[in-house]
Here is the input.
Amino acid sequence: MKKFKIYSANYCDFCKQAITLLMYKGAHFEVIDIAKNEIARDLLKERTGCATIPQIFLDGKFIGGCTHLLAMDESGELDSIIKGEEK
Here is the structure.
């Protein structure tokens, strides 16, 4: 089963939106709160080239942030991934 990993901060509305969507969809995911961890944020920026949160990974592959996740939902791709019916 596919697993999402979300690097987030508890004060971030985009993070909350992404987490809520994955919960609603019944996805398997892990949330890592990096709000107070500058080292983790710097490492993520080096790895992904992005400085914003959330940063969302699917089975270790960076897929983007909340906007990307919402686009995947809009296109139906997110449901396919969660159901194991990837296109």
Observations:
- The CA atoms of residues 18 and 66 lie 5 Å apart.
- The chain is about 45% helix and 25% strand.
